[in-house]
Amino acid sequence: MAGLAVAARAFSASASAGAGGVAMVQGASRGIGLEFVRQLLRRSDQGRVVATCRAPASAAELQKLKEEHAPGRLTVLPLDVTDESTIEAAAASIGETHGSLDLLINSTGILSIPNVIQPETTLSKVQKSSLLLAYEVNAVGPILVIKHMWPLLKVGGRSETGRGFSLVANMSARVSSIGDNGLGGWHSYRASKTALNHDEDSVSRAWQEGQHCLHSATSRNRGH
Ligand SMILES: NC(=O)c1ccc[n+]([C@@H]2O[C@H](COP(=O)([O-])OP(=O)(O)OC[C@H]3O[C@@H](n4cnc5c(N)ncnc54)[C@H](OP(=O)(O)O)[C@@H]3O)[C@@H](O)[C@H]2O)c1
């Protein structure tokens, strides 16, 4: 899990370097995203965190964390990566409240949803609908989130964090690696995460000098 360590260092640096800053965790209602939120809140008593998921009212753990911390430290916003208007709305809300972003963690990802999508064990189980859904959520979604948060990230990473640059971390997966693909299968998930890696690479090249786009994957060999 090398990438998890890299992402952990990213949010650790963001939270502890200075007085705080603003971090966004996208896909935060449970699992790894929820733990990022928990750790960010724990590591600094001043940093502000924006957590997103599709249905904030049903995200019990996030609501509990919000109650446990001072007003304004944790904001929970609705965001569905398959609905670009919700990404735009989240960006507008963060812009109004905070004016910038210092750290963006894209954690949303799907591998298996009962009766909708399953990791394919053989080629005969591959379905167009699964390929497209995985691609939409795992690859298209995170890139659209970066696109809409880009103006906020461009003004972030400055005085409050003491780092001088903002960070983006995308949760990829070891199985996205072409070089490390020993078993095959899992066509939808593998291909969508590889696509994410590739576009992340393009985003990092467009990043302006002085700012950093962090590559976060669970393998050192991401899709090469
Ligand atoms: N767990 C692992 O061992 C592992 C290994 C390698 C890589 N990863 C990657 O790490 C990331 C996190 O994994 P996890 O195990 O923590 O996943 P998880 O527990 O299934 O959580 C996924 C998160 O994504 C959100 N989500 C799902 N569909 C969404 C959509 N359309 N729009 C917005 N949010 C959506 C969910 O929120 P709502 O459903 O509440 O909206 C939830 O907060 C994923 O990208 C995964 O591929 C995980």
Automatic annotation (TrEMBL):
Pfam families: adh_short. It comes from the Eukaryota. InterPro entries: Fungal_SecMetab_SDRs (IPR051468), NAD(P)-bd_dom_sf (IPR036291), SDR_fam (IPR002347). PANTHER family: NAD(P)-BINDING ROSSMANN-FOLD SUPERFAMILY PROTEIN, SHORT-CHAIN DEHYDROGENASE/REDUCTASE. This is Uncharacterized protein. It comes from Urochloa decumbens.
